[in-house]
Amino acid sequence: MLVWVVVTPFAVWAVLRPVPADVHFRWVQLVAFTPYAALASAVAPLVALASRRWTALAVSLAATASLAAWVLPRALPAGETAADGPPLRVLSSNLLMGSVPATALVDLVRKLQPDVLTVQELTPGAASALEKAGLARLLPYKTERPRPGVGGSAIYARHPVTPGQAIEVGGFGQAAATVDVPGAGPVGVVSVHPCAPSRADRFRCWADGLAALPPPGRTPRILAGDFNATLDHTAVRELLGEGYADAADATGDGFVTTWPYRPWHFNGFGIPPVTIDHVLAGPGVGVRTFAVHTLPATDHRAVFAELVLPRAA
């Protein structure tokens, strides 16, 4: 009996993870920790082997192999990109209700020289502070949707911006725009931030916010921000299935975590860090590099990707 107590949780995890739906609110929370489950699952075959329970050994080996097959490729680079157009550097940061000092973010922009910056949890005060700190001199074009609390967002760019229809779900406004990149033409950008599935009553808001993200189109498209979801969540897997590529996964940095980078507790339990901040690149857009950067006064790491756009016809 003890053997099956060890084996069963990993077997159930391996069965539920590929299900093309969010089977339950609690599963949505748990599945974010699939890489940890894959690592821990290696114990189950050892216990089964030591106990000489051959059926349990077979089940545990299958579960471990399945979990490993889903997570290990994140450490393997995808290889060279076929795109041959201009580069596009993308930076994204969750400002934690506008708490990040404007000077710290502007200093990071000055250091990394992104062509596009997407921010989440942009408050009116934070938007004003970024203006005063000189962000407009570095990224003069923008579409801003600041709000008190956690629902605001914005896109800032080095090149001209045409604001698009923001994605409005549950009080979260995910800013959208088209950036006119020289040599590549229009590039669609969304500052992603659905509400967090922290409570059962927020589950539908979270699911709808992710489902509303646009599929790849005829022109290049970038989704960058705080997805409140990992590569193991159904909604993100569906986006990847539609043709998006996760920049961290493409460069072999898929195990680099983004939240929380400081100790964080839920119901008295410490939360191990996971990867919920992403840069997703549409079909035809190559990925050169990916990195995370730490900013003060936020629990998210900023994510930065160097992309390569297809050349305009």
Automatic annotation (TrEMBL):
For this UniProt entry, the molecular function terms from Gene Ontology, in alphabetical order, are: endonuclease activity; exonuclease activity
- Give residue ranges for domain Endonuclease/exonuclease/phosphatase: 91-300
Q: What keywords were assigned to this record? A: Endonuclease, Exonuclease, Hydrolase, Membrane, Nuclease, Transmembrane, Transmembrane helix
Instruction: Write out the transmembrane intervals.
Output: 28-47, 54-72
Q: Does the keyword Transmembrane apply?
A: yes
Which Pfam family would be a valid example here? Answer: Exo_endo_phos
* Gene3D superfamilies the record matches: Endonuclease/exonuclease/phosphatase
> SUPFAM superfamilies, alphabetically?
DNase I-like
- Designated name of the protein: Endonuclease/exonuclease/phosphatase family protein
Classify the source by domain of life: Bacteria
Source organism per entry reads Sphaerisporangium album
In the UniProt record, does the keyword Transmembrane helix occur? Answer: yes
